[in-house]
Amino acid sequence: MPPFRPRAQHELERLDDDALIAYMREAGAAGHESAGLALGMLAYGYRSRVRARVSMKIPAQDVDDVTDEILAKALFSTFDGSYGGQFGAWMNTITQRAIADYHRRGPGRVKAEPLDEREAAPEDDEVETGDALERALAALNPGHRSVIELWLRGYGAQEIDGVSDANVHQIVSRFRRALRGQLGLGPKDEAA
Amino acid sequence: MTDIVEHLLQQFIQADRAGEADPLAYLERVEGAERAELAALIDGYLARAPRRPFDREGFETSRARAVTEEVGRSLGGVSGEWPALLPRLRHRAKLRRAQVVANLAEALGARGAQTEKVARYYHGMEQGTLPADGVSDRVLDALARIVGTTAQELRDAGRAAGGSAPRGVPGTAFARIGVPDPEYGPAEERMPGGGGAGEPRDEIDEAFTSA
Known about the structure:
heterodimer; A: about 190 residues; mainly alpha; 9 helices; B: mainly alpha; about 60% helix
């Protein structure tokens, strides 16, 4: 195994999540202080968006508590063997689970269940809201799905390559009708 | 033509990219079906947004720093997830650390100087320096009642994290970020035995270090 090579902050900032996590573990094993920096980068990099998501689903007085529990759970998981890669998607799973747990049990800790149990667990309305968007997306053909994925990331019609502005608007409009259907705000069988 | 939902979504995305944005401020501007749709779209955007670039100044003043330090103490310590869990539980119970200590000392029947010993042991639990295996059910039962949880949850948290972190992970590697929380003072070494040098072992030591 090659010896550990410490990296500077600007180098760590360029690493994607999984590379940063791998570095964090190596630095920790080597006893290097940059392990703490890598841990902090992950926490800082995700906290505000997790908090924003939580704030839309639970009462204000518990938002920070639940957010910090989600963050801690996700960070612990990178060391306990339950993390399987793709930190952002993993964080989404933990976030949805924590919100569902909150509504089922009231304020409390995020349950540390294996992933397969989480996936099999019953959903509640709060999780359902997030799933509605994913279901509407899943019903699209791959080309339209990639357009919507870009649109959801904030790309404007002019920035989406290979599709005319008019087509982007049409695809978005049909997707939104399908989403409203999935949310129970319109016909569910609306073509996507 | 852009409708109000799409307009607000784009505004939110721009604000989020520029810094932190409060989705509730945007949701307040619509209601009913439009609000539900906007919430789903904002949630979809947030779920896809990449890791925010690191800003050391922003980090120092954010709650992300506290979480990082708590997780770091847990990973490198001998108290499992207690350094991450206990501060959160007492915050939820709206109790300062000194009050938790006072209540715990009373519940354990500590007298006089024994209260200071309870404080040191509890400090070790939050710092990750007190081995979780040694803490008795009597302490966990009392502490659970004070902070509003169960002894089993405390016991489970004590077994996790630090106990299952990769072998050879030195705790200080994860703790060296930011400035220390003034409530904790300087980092302490592991405290496996009695409450203080030269003090005879008593029932308080037994309760915290011999389960």
